Every structure is written in structure tokens, then in C-alpha cells.
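S.,

As promised, the zinc ion run. Input:
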Amino acid sequence: MDHFDDIDLADCPCCRGVGSIEEEGGWCVYVQCLDCGAHTAELSFKNEDERRQAARMAAMNWNFGKVIRPDPGD
Ligand SMILES: [Zn+2]
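Predicted complex:
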């Protein structure tokens, strides 16, 4: 499987860190900041088409700043 090289990610809306598209268990994708841990909602997929679509949607949410901020005490 390729790794979404064609999807552009903006800087983290929380800390301006580097965002990364993550896949979990082969059924969902989300974008997470490698610095502060902020992340988008997880989007599930069932096949390759949905997988790419979910990745694009997660990237869009990320680029619009729709992220779940990390817990302050975490
Ligand atoms: Zn961050």
C-alpha cells in the first residue's frame, strides 16, 4: 500500500508541528501531529477506494483545523 504521498498536509493547527497521516489496524485513518499529539477524528474504511477518500477527508479536516487537542495533563 502506498502512503498518501499525494496528499498535502498543513502545519499542526495547535503547535505548527508536522502532521502525519496514520493508519490504524487497517480499518481507519486519521492525521496526527508528531509534536503535540493533536489529531483528527478517525475515519473508517472498508476498501482501497474508501481508504484514499478517508485519508483525503482526514487531511481536509486537519488543514481546516478540525482537530482534537491533546489533554492538557497528558
Ligand atoms: Zn501539534
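Residues 60 and 73 are 28 Å apart (CA to CA). Helices lie at 48-63.

- D.
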